[in-house]
Amino acid sequence: MCDHCGCREYPPIAELTADHVVILELAGRLAADAEAGRHVDVEARDRLLPLLRSHAAKEELGLYALLIAQGEAEEGAYDHLEGEHREVIDAIEAGRFGHLEHYALQRHIEEEEEGLFTRSTFWFDGDTWDRMTEAHRRVDAAT
Ligand SMILES: [Fe+2]
Ligand SMILES: [Fe+2]
User: Fold this and answer.
1) Domain total for the chain?
2) How much distance in Å is there from the Cα of 88 to the middle of ligand 2?
3) What's the gap in Å between 53 CA and the centre of ligand 1?
4) Which of 6, 20, 44, 54 is least enclosed by beta carbons within 10 angstroms?
């Protein structure tokens, strides 16, 4: 994952990576409960949904948009990732988040960490990191 590429040294990337750890832990609890036929863990769900919404907004307004603006990705290159954000949130809201959805979320996060995070640390400069940080703070202020 990100332990070898140094991207944790970039604060906005470190922030998204820290979110991923919490998101996967909470999502894992929901998936395990669903597979075991237990009642949904309301505390986990109610922490996860707002975190997912703000995390997705940060990526869509920050990381994805900046990689496209920098010319490092084509317009629309991350539409599938944005669609996956909606799918994960919809599945949790509908109470149908099981192992398959958890695997899909793991793949989504792996694509971001192995692909987009690494690309951003290679191509972004100080100005781009500032714009990414501003995008994150705008999302925090709105949520
Ligand atoms: Fe994402
Ligand atoms: Fe993410």
Assistant:
1) 1
2) 12
3) 10
4) 6
* CA 73/CA 78 separation, integer angstroms: 8
Is pTM beyond 0.85? Reply is yes
For residue range 5-60, list pLDDT tens digits in order: 665 679 999 999 999 999 999 999 999 999 999 999 999 999 999 999 999 999 99
One-letter amino acid at 102 equals H
Domain span at 34: 8-142
- Minimum-distance ligand to the CA of 19? 2
For ion ligand 2, residues whose CB falls within 5 Å: 112
Q: Establish if 120 belongs to a structural domain.
A: yes
Residue 3 lies in a domain: no
Ligand nearest to the CA of 22: 2
Q: Please indicate, yes or no, if residue 1 is contained in any of the structural domains.
A: no
83 part of a folded domain:
yes
The answer to whether the beta carbons of residues 13 and 7 sit under 8 Å apart is yes
For ligand 1, the distance from its centroid to the CA atom of residue 56, given in whole angstroms, is: 5
